[in-house]
Design brief:
Layout lengths: L16 E2 L6 E2 L10 H11 L1 H26 L2 H32 L6 H29 L7 H26 L3 H25 L5 H24 L14 H33 L1 H11 L3 H23 L3 H37 L9 H17 L1 H9 L3 H25 L6 H25 L2
Antiparallel strand pairs: 1-2
Helix pairs in contact: 2-6, 2-10, 3-4, 3-5, 3-8, 3-9, 3-10, 4-5, 5-6, 5-7, 6-7, 8-9, 8-14, 8-15, 9-12, 10-11, 10-13, 11-12, 11-13, 12-15, 13-15, 14-15
């Protein structure tokens, strides 16, 4: 197990870091030193940071996927709608964390060479993470008297949202240090602890309560955070280090645009969740959330890749390796879109069995085939612009991202509201589709323009 902090080193052409054991190295996806031969290249692929990060996140995605399948069959549509909406709120909390704290952590700190200066920057972001945690906690408790949801459920949702946001920072700390095995260990801990508690709940409870499930996820996230902090800093107190936040003012000049971009991007993708749940209740939102279950792991994998690769792209751009970045973005975009397209074709062939297993019992009166088909096309567009968005974040071009997502959010919100007013809830996904298609075209064009203009 790694000792406390080690000084990161970077070379001009290749970006490599020691893994947690100190015995091996994980090669970067950017051009650099490569092994020769089929076996060597296979080892490079398996041990790359992308494979390690996505593989670890696949465990989390698989756990969430199975958990959603269990809940679809064991709880009412209303309870499942509450559970799904809790994740939507958690994503908003995580988006705030990502914009103001986690993205600056992964973009600014990797290029700092002085260990003391870097430690102070990390301490500042750690302090901000703690402040955000308490803000989310207080906001949730303050809103409890106004919600129609049961008090125990509302409290569980509040704790889940606050912890989910804090864990996002904890995961990003491993990526910022170019040590994905730290995050992978935390992910594995989350899955093991969460699985054990949820299995115990399912076996012991006559009626499975959503509040208990959410609290199980809270406990699992806390356990994962403890493991990640320990693996980064050992038994020392550095994992509890804090710093003054006065120097954040310079970061704020850029992160404020990232905040606007993150919230509007999330609203663009979740306008149907907020509008339908607010106006029609959790049961009306449940079928759309149930249709998205199949694509949840894909979305998480895309976000994992983005969080993992931003530090590498930031270093590559600081070294004026625009050609390498452009090549990686182009290749990754095609691979991601192709994988989602292949998944859509597989779903089409297996739809009779998928529908019978997942939806026939609780959602027989809903147009689940249409809902799943729309989600498939939406995910295809989301995958196609994931890599350009990561590159623009690494370039700190947050204003462009913010303005693009503002336009997308307006398009999404208006279309969702209009379709919901005139038609059934499932038609609101057309608004999400239109916004995602706009983002794919806008961000891809903007990135290539920026890379051509760069010196």
């Amino acid at each position: 197990m790694a000792a406390a902090d080690t000084t990161d080193k970077s070379s001009g052409a290749a970006l490599q870091r020691e893994d947690d054991s100190g015995a091996g190295r994980a090669s970067s996806n950017l051009p650099g030193v490569e092994r020769q031969g089929l076996i060597g290249k296979s080892i490079d692929l398996i041990s790359s940071r992308l494979a390690v990060s996505v593989g670890a996140q696949a465990l989390v995605s698989g756990f969430h996927f199975v958990l959603n399948l269990v809940l679809l069959r064991l709880v009412t549509p209303y309870d499942y709608g509450v559970f799904a909406f809790a994740f939507v709120l958690a994503m908003f909390g995580s988006a705030v964390n990502n914009a103001l704290i986690s993205t600056p952590l992964t973009v600014y700190t990797p290029i700092i060479k002085d260990p003391a200066e870097r430690a102070q920057q990390e301490g500042m972001f750690s302090t901000l993470n703690l402040l955000l945690f308490f803000i989310l906690l207080v906001a949730g408790v303050a809103y409890m008297p106004w919600t129609s949801v049961d008090g125990h459920v509302a409290l569980a949702v509040t704790l889940f949202v606050a912890i989910y946001s804090a864990r996002h920072f904890s995961r990003s700390a491993g990526y910022a240090r170019m040590r994905p095995l730290v995050t992978a260990t935390g992910d594995a801990t989350y899955v093991v602890v969460g699985s054990l508690i949820v299995i115990g709940l399912v076996l012991s409870a006559v009626t499975l309560k959503i509040s208990h499930v959410l609290l199980a996820l809270v406990a699992a996230n806390l356990a994962a955070m403890l493991v990640e902090r320990y693996r980064l800093h050992g038994k020392g107190r550095k994992w509890l280090a804090f710093a003054r936040i006065g120097s954040y003012r310079s970061v704020w000049e850029q992160s404020r645009w990232a905040l606007a971009g993150s919230l509007t991007t999330l609203f663009m993708a979740q306008a149907h969740s907020l509008i339908i749940t607010t106006t029609h209740g959790p049961d009306a939102f449940a079928p759309l959330a149930a249709g998205f279950v199949i694509f949840g792991p894909v979305r998480v994998a895309l976000l994992t890749w983005q969080n993992m690769v931003k530090p590498e792209l930031a270093v590559a751009l600081s070294e004026s390796r625009q050609l390498a970045v452009r090549k990686q973005i182009r290749t990754t975009s095609f691979l991601m879109a192709g994988a989602v397209l292949a998944m859509g074709l597989l779903l089409l062939m297996l739809w009779p069995w998928i529908n019978a297993f997942l939806y026939a019992e609780q959602y027989a009166d809903q147009p689940m085939a249409l809902i799943v088909a729309l989600w498939s096309v939406i995910t295809l567009f989301a995958a196609s612009y994931n890599a350009p968005a990561a590159a623009l974040q690494a370039m700190r071009d947050f204003r462009v991202l913010a303005m693009a997502s503002v336009y997308g959010a307006i398009l999404s919100g208006l279309t969702v509201a209009i379709t919901l007013y005139y038609f059934n809830p499932e038609t609101t996904l057309i608004g999400i589709l239109a916004a995602e298609a706009f983002m794919a075209l806008y961000l891809t064009r903007t990135l290539y323009t920026r890379l051509q203009e760069a010196p």
